[in-house]
Specification:
4 strands; 162 residues; Bacterial Protein-export protein SecB
Length: 162
């Protein structure tokens, strides 16, 4: 057995830990401002979708991630319905280096929350008297990569024109 002269612990990296503690709806809203007349219209709906997420660190390792989805469906210029879901989750995340932690918070967790939000949107729309709105899958990894590209400072061009 080797002796440790200063009684120091060897430098051991903290293991990466990820635990889903809870998934819940934080806020929900459904509006049909033009009903019942909208049900009489010829339908050629247009979908507008807004997506964002909020990150709140609750303690050293617990984060609340809120995926915000707002879907507006219009017929011509009239709003048929507007549905907003704030799908939240509590996640215990620790031991990740900064770049991977950013990915976990901004892409990995929203990927977990999206199916729950998608189902909530569809159920609300059905209960509002409309055909279900099945949102297409979203590639949060690609959105995160785009966000990182936008944050990179623009490199000056080294090309010269003679």
């Amino acid at each position: 057995m080797e002796e440790n002269p200063n009684n120091q612990q060897p430098n051991i990296a903290e293991p990466e830990t990820f635990v889903i503690q809870n998934v819940y709806i934080k806020d929900v809203s459904f509006e049909t401002p033009n009903s019942p007349q909208i049900f009489m219209e010829q339908w050629k709906p247009k979908l507008e979708l807004e997506i964002s997420n909020d990150i709140k660190q609750l303690n050293d390792e617990t984060f609340e991630i809120v995926l915000n989805l707002t879907s507006t469906v219009k017929v011509e210029e009239k709003t048929a319905f507007l549905v907003e879901v704030h799908q939240a989750g509590l996640f215990a995340i620790k031991g990740f280096p900064n770049d991977r932690m950013s990915y976990m918070l901004n892409a990995y967790c929203p990927n977990i929350l999206f199916p729950f939000a998608r189902e909530a949107v569809a159920n609300l729309v059905i209960k509002g008297g409309f055909q279900p709105l099945w949102l297409s899958p979203i590639n949060f990894d690609a959105l995160y990569a785009q966000q990182l590209q936008k944050q990179k400072p623009q490199q000056p061009s080294t090309d010269t024109i003679n």
